[in-house]
Write a structure and sequence with these properties.
Elements lengths: L1 H23 L2 H9 L6 E6 L2 E6 H39 L14 H6 L1
Antiparallel strand pairs: 1-2
Helix pairs in contact: 1-3, 2-3
């Protein structure tokens, strides 16, 4: 049971990472807005907690790189999530673990124990 709990906790951590990245990822919106502006227009970018004055043409490539890196990270996390989910399901199947209300929502307790 400890291994199942550890696997489940790991899945929750991965989901948290994915959701956090998705929540704070606004690169696409920023790029859409900046593409409408003149390349020589002033803009500000936060670098290490400090605002730095740059031009749109300097900022757009950096944001594009950040977007690419975030996309790659999300892809890797989703692959890990899929792998760990399959491992957990296989573990539950191997050890005949059934979670009431999740795996068998309508099955009474007596039938769960008997199966």
């Amino acid at each position: 049971m400890i291994q199942k709990s550890m696997m489940r906790d790991y899945l929750l951590v991965l989901w948290t990472y994915v959701n956090t990245i998705l929540l704070f990822c606004c690169c696409r919106l920023v790029l859409q807005m900046l593409e409408k502006l003149e390349p020589d227009r002033k803009c500000f970018r936060r670098v290490g907690g400090a605002l730095v004055e740059k031009t749109v043409k300097e900022v757009v490539p950096a944001i594009g790189t950040t977007k690419t890196q975030i996309t790659a990270t999300l892809k890797a996390l989703r692959e890990q999530l899929d792998t760990k989910t399959k491992e957990l399901l296989e573990y539950k199947k191997t050890h005949r673990i059934v979670v009431r209300g999740v795996d068998a929502p309508d099955m009474p307790y007596d039938e769960l124990v008997a199966s």
